[in-house]
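hiii, so i know i said id send this last week but things got crazy w the move. better late than never?? heres the sequnce for the chain we talked about at the cafe, plus the structure i predicted for it. fair warning i was half asleep when i ran it
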Amino acid sequence: MRATTKQSIKLHSIAQLIKLNCVKRSGQGRTTTHSKEQATPLPLYLGLKIHAQTRSRNLLDSFYHLGMSVSYDRVLQVSTQLTDAVNAHFNEIKAVVPTNLRRGIFCTGAVDNVDHNPSSLTSHGSFHGTGISIFQYLTIEQTGDPCQTQRQELLRPKKKSVSELPEFYANVPPAVSEKKPLVPPLLDGFVPLVENNCFNKSKEEELKWLNYVQEVVSDQRMPSDVS
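okay and structure toks below
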């Protein structure tokens, strides 16, 4: 009997969990160690997913003891290694761009301010930044070349602290404008003169309206024709 797609996914998931739980025991069975060589994608995905959604160590440890996820420390190690690999990629290309950006593809960008609680008087309550969105237009004929991330960074020793961002990204040099005298460009051609009558007429209408409002306020009444 042929299994359906959903049944195949379930069977594949069960097989991954069985392989994960082929553990090593030491100290008369008191200590259980999950081998990294036996690690499968599903428990690692569950660990990263739970950590990203809840940031709860207790919940992640509960799934780990049930044999359904990797440990909390392993999640921190993997996330740190991935972050270090991305930072190394930024240092290699001398630019901070999304790692899934492809080369040789036409791109457009959108830039807008990101303001959160701008009325706050402290930096703890408000935030001001700039959001940049990059759009790429892939076609069937032209898919571009992927930006290769340094995968050797994933083989670094155990660590839980993330490396620093590139210096050119963290330190932005100030922009200083040079003070130079303004030189207006020379005008070639006929320059139409603005008639003063237009300005004077508008000024008379404004003064007429102000005088009328002053009379109404002084009489403390509001006529029906005033809107």
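btw The helical segments are 5-20, 41-54, 57-65, 72-93, 167-170, 196-219. thought thatd interest u
miss u guys!!
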